[in-house]
Amino acid sequence: DAVLPLRSVDAAWQQMDANDHFRLEDVPVGPNHRVTLVLRKVDPFEPGARIVSSRIAADGSTVETPVAHPAGQWWTGFVEGDEGSRAMLSRSAAGVLGFVQDARGTGIIASDRVGRHGPIISYELNELPPDDIRWTPWPCQELDNPELAAQQRPRSTTAQPCRQLSVAVETDTELYGLFAGGSDPVGAEVAYLATLYAGMQAIYQADLQILPSIGYLRVWSGGTDPWATTDAGSALGELRNYWVANMASTSRNVVQQISARGLGGGVAWVSAACGGYAYSVCGNIDRKSTRLNSS
Predict the structure, then answer these.
(1) With 0-12 CB in 10 A as exposed, 13-18 as middle and 19+ as buried, what is 125?
(2) pTM beyond 0.85, yes or no
(3) Burial class (CB in 10 A: 0-12, 13-18, 19+), 41
(4) pLDDT tens profile 77-113
């Protein structure tokens, strides 16, 4: 009873798509909570972003095929009347996905996996029975940035102007495999990653006055990729070495790898944006890991 099935109304999405700002009333966040969302349309990609599908050829070279910008809608905003709230709502080849964070907690809006025809549901995390979601407690590691001086300047606690952060998104064949059962797995993976970064925009803008946008995105769709490591720390070094050796011409402020390999979690060098150690790895991505138990 903590989960509410929803309908995706095409007419409502069409009306939203014709606008850049939208006030969406009576949005159900679980069976017992409804909110009005004040939203603005966002683009997870920066202008001129390059999206490619890559494979490794027989001679060891990397072959890239351009991929079209994904169709979809991505919205961020807040709950009307709740100053500290934030929200994200999206519809794309990755499905209908979103979240609402307000005074009551965190609510999730999600459709079934790509290629399936299950219902759209909404629920509040704190209303679910224990163990209804299979959470996996992967750790996140922070590594000291070798480029930083021994004495760091204290971080400012005052409001800063919104800063743009160009992100180069790297992936692996394992992530592609999560979408391989659909009719357009490359398009679905790109749309899914766009949704992740729309969610990041909602959080980073509110908390850090930073706007992360995708400037480059690569899908490894040919069955092979350059990655051989099996833990997050080694994967971080492998990622940096590859990009230093092969991707110097690709403009970016940071490189982030989104991986479905079992790396044991995520890792990054801290305070490294725009420098030589602006790399991070997020492993163990599994689109089934937050699905409700069916038993």
Answers:
(1) middle
(2) yes
(3) middle
(4) 999 999 899 999 999 999 999 999 999 999 999 986 6
